[in-house]
Every structure is written in C-alpha cells, then in structure tokens.
Amino acid sequence: MGFHYFSCLILALCILNQGLAKGALGLACNWGLRSTHPLPPNIVVKLMKENGFDKVKLFEADPGALKALGRSGIQVMIGIPNDLLATLASSVRNAEEWVSQNVSSYISKSGVDIRYVAVGNEPFLKTYGDSFLHTTFPALKNIQAALIKAGLGRQVKVTVPLNADVYESDSGVPSGGNFRSDIHGLMISIIKFLSDNGAPLTINIYPFLSLYADPDFPKDYAFFNGSAAPVVDGSISYTNVLDANFDTLISALEKNGFGSLPVIVGEIGWPTDGDPNANKQNAQRFNQGLFDRIVRKRGTPKRATPPDIYVFGLIDEDAKSIDPGNFERHWGVFNYDGTVKYPLNLGGRKPLVAAKGVRYLARQWCIMSPQASTSDSNLAQSVSTACTYADCTSLGTGSSCGGLDTRANISYAFNAYYQTMNQRKDACQFNNLGIITTIDPSPRQSSCQFKIMIDLGRHETKSTSLAPPRKQPNSMFMLALGFIFIVLSSIICI
Questions:
Q1: Is residue 264 part of a domain?
Q2: Of 60, 96, 97, 122, which is the active-site residue?
Q3: Same domain membership, residue 303 and residue 197
Q4: 114: part of which helix (H) or strand (E)?
Q5: Distances (CA, A) of 488 to 231, 374, 392, 394
Q6: What is the domain range of residue 401?
Q7: Is the pLDDT at 491 greater than 70, yes or no?
Q8: Could you tell me which of 208, 296, 364, 412 has the fewest CB atoms within 10 Å of its CB?
C-alpha cells in the first residue's frame, strides 16, 4: 500500500514537472491549411506542443491534420466551411454522415480529442449579405442532433464562429452593445440554442482591422500598452480594443437575457506583411501583450474570468484568399516553414521554438536575367503569370519588399513562381527573361526575403496536401495587374 502510494506520488510529480517544463498554460491557436507547400502535419503538431499550445482550431476536417493530432494531448475544434452549410442544413442524415466521417471516426480510431465543432466561419459577415443567413442555424441544429445520436452530445459541443460585426453600439461605448438589427432575431435564436445545449458562442476580434479600415483610428488603442485616450463608459475606462469590443458583446448578451453564456475568442492576432501597419514590430508588440494577458489570466472589466483565446494564426498561408487585403497571408506567429518570425515570451518559459525536421528545395533562386531588358514586350505577361500563381503580396507599398528597385521586383515575382512550381526548370524561363542563380538575391539589411520552398517529397510523412497551388482568379488577377502597374510605372520613371 505504502509503496503503491509512493509510486503514484512520484508519477504525479513527474507528470506535473513535465507539464510545467513544457509550459502547459492552455495556449490556443488557429491552424490554417491554405498553403502551396504546407508543413507536414506531424511537424506542426510537434511545433505546437513544444511551444505550449494545447488547443487548436482547424477550419476544416483535414485528414492529415486530424490524424497527426491523435493522442497528442491537444484539444481540437473542427470547423465546417461555409460552402457545406447548405448541404448540412438540408437534412439531418447529411449531418450524421459528416459527424460520422469527421468526428466519431477520428475520436474512436485515432484518439483525437475533439471538443468543439465550429459550424460555419463568420457566416453573417456583412460583406456576405444573406448568403448564409438561412442555412447556418439549420446546419447548427442538425450537427447538434447528429452529435447526440452518435453519443457525443456531452463530449463535443457545437459553436458558431462569428465576426465582431454581428454586434454594435448605438452609444459608441460597450454598455450600448446589442446585436445588429438585421440579424437580431436570428442571433437570439442561435444564442438560446447554444445556451440550451451548454455550448459557447465564438467571436473573432481583430484590432488590426480597425486600424486597417480607418486611417484616423488611434493606433495605440489597438495595443495593450498604448497611450491612446481611454474610452470612458460610466465608471469603466477602456484602454484597448479587445476589452471594449469583447464587453460590447457581453452587454449585448446581457440585454437579451444571456449574460452568463460562455464566449470563446476564436481568432485574434496581427499580420506581419502586406500593409504598412502589418510588420514584425507591430505584430510582436500586439501578440506579446496578448500572451501576457493569457498567461496572467486577465479578463475584461465585464468578465473577470478570461475566455479561451485562439491566436490567429500559427503559420503563414501563401494560398489564402487576399480579397480582404494582402495581409491575409501573413498572420502566422511562425513563418511558412515554421521558423520564428520574432521573439515572444510566453510566460517566463524558453523562447519560441522553431519547427524541426523541415526539408527544403535546392538552394537556388530564379531572378531576372542580367541580359534581359526592362522594356521587353514579354515582361508584363511574365510578371502577370508569376503573380497569378504565386504569392507577390510582400511587394505592395509599405510591405517588406515594397522598396525594391524594378529589376529586384521582377526577380522577386519570378522566384516566387519558381519556388511555388517546385523549382521546375521550365518555371524560370519567362520568355528567356529569367535565370537560375545559387547566390541569395535577398537584399542585405532588409526584412525582404527571397524564399526557398519546402520540399514536399523529402519528408517521411506526407504533407497535408499535395494538390497544385490554389488559384484565386479574381484577387490574384487584380494583384498581378496592380504589380504590373507598379513595375511599368517604375520603368517609365527610369
């Protein structure tokens, strides 16, 4: 008896020590998969664990990611994309099949610790109009019914991730918060359903977007250590966007009789490129303040108990839609290859740890040939092709590579395409305008980097997707046209 008790005590102490050493403080993140050359899922899971993340949100039920998360100790929220809402809303049977394939199967066969199913992704965003107004709630109810039928009603909860534009304040202060008039009735129905089923509401809050949308927005108010004038709401002074925005939601919930409904912050973060305000300095400042709050378990004036906060995002995604802005591909705390972008202190633990075991394509780049002329008639089409299929968002005004000269701009575009196409020989031809070099063309004393892509074929574990790069016709075409205009303008001015 004594020896058994002593053994159990030693085991418990070892587990506790291991948890403290790894910094198990309940950090949560979003793992997006919109990449032309994604990191292998097993490497990403190790990256999360080594940096203290024990909760993750996926935007879709990706098989590779879910299998890698099996028996990892990481809690999972699985997302259902908006384009599936109509199908799931149309019949309970469709929802049952989805739950069986994407929830029950991974829990029973792979040991994935699935805690939430997120139905839709910001389906009531104003820019979507009424596209998902009539399918989100029926899909939510059908998924809940399917979870109950599968015997998972208590283990797995449903939620709906919503953008913060579903609520507003007519007085301009948090206490005036209420839900948008055009969706008020629908919101109350969904919230009542979540409350009746012991499920949380998920809200996405983006202080960066407040600054992006309004050039007169007080910049310091977006951060947690700023000097902007506070927003005074009665006896409460709000010094940052997160507190004010979150409490506007809480006021809306209180006004409608659901003041105690659990709330999750599903997305919040700061991008590092693609806009003058999207840089590593601002991202480090914001995310350090955010993680400090999480580690200190700090809530808001209206809710002292802090919510779970899922930072957006874990890794950059070079194939993500840029319809909202070029910054969309640069939200990661880590670069596309899992390297550290900037230092962060996650609660007195060791610094961020980069991904291990990443393999790259050959150390070579595609650049504009020294013999090629900037007046070549094939130049515009070549650049258009490159920036339609590859990521040129770092070339915009105020971005990390926005200060390059004309030839370097063209070389960046050529190399982005060359790497995206796995360094195929024909991917650096560009009508004889391109040439392969083994000398890194990245400018010195600059944050602009000419990347070398991950080698998808050299990892022992298959990557999340080996599909061709995703083409975003509208946004990519407009980006390419914009870049061509910049290049041609610079040529004219030479």
A1: yes
A2: 122
A3: yes
A4: strand 113-119
A5: 46, 9, 16, 18
A6: 365-492
A7: no
A8: 296
User: pLDDT band at 492, cuts 50/70/90?
Assistant: very low
Residue of 267, 317, 328, 460 marked catalytic: 267
User: 97 an active-site residue?
Assistant: no
> Is the confidence at residue 25, as pLDDT, over 70?
no
Number of domains in the chain: 2
State the Cα–Cα distance between residues 416 and 428, nearest whole angstrom: 10
Tokens of 156: 């797995």
At 85, list the tokens.
């809402």
Asked if the model's pLDDT at residue 9 lies above 60, the reply is no
- The answer on 287 and 419 residing in a single domain is no
Q: Which of 200, 204, 243 has its CA nearest to residue 221?
A: 243
Would residue 122 show up in a list of annotated catalytic residues for this protein? yes
Q: How many other CB atoms are found less than 10 A from the CB of residue 219?
A: 15
The residue among 301, 329, 357 that closes a domain is: 329
E strands in 180-262: 201-204, 231-233, 236-238
Phi, psi of 226 (to 5 degrees): -85, 175
386 in any annotated domain: yes
At residue 487, does pLDDT exceed 70? no
Could you give the CA distance from residue 107 to residue 67 in angstroms, rounded to a whole number? Answer: 10
To the nearest whole percent, how much of the chain has pLDDT over 90? 85
DSSP, residue by residue, 421-440: TTT-GGGG-TTTTEEEESS-
422 and 325 in a single domain? The answer is no
d(CA 317, CA 319): 6
Beta strands at 167-169 and 231-233: parallel, antiparallel or unpaired:
unpaired
> Same domain for 385 and 271?
no
CATH of the domain at 201: 3.20.20.80
Question: Does residue 51 form part of some domain?
Answer: yes
Contact 200, 141 (CB under 8 A): no
Q: What is the mean pLDDT of residues 412-439?
A: 97
Residue 189: in which H helix or E strand, if any? helix 184-196
CA distances (Å), origin 367, targets 370, 379, 401: 9, 13, 15
pTM of the entire structure? 0.89
> What is the pLDDT confidence band of residue 14, given thresholds at 50, 70 and 90?
very low
Answer whether residue 142 is part of any domain.
no
Q: In this predicted structure, what is the pLDDT of residue 471? A: 38
One domain for residues 167 and 268: yes
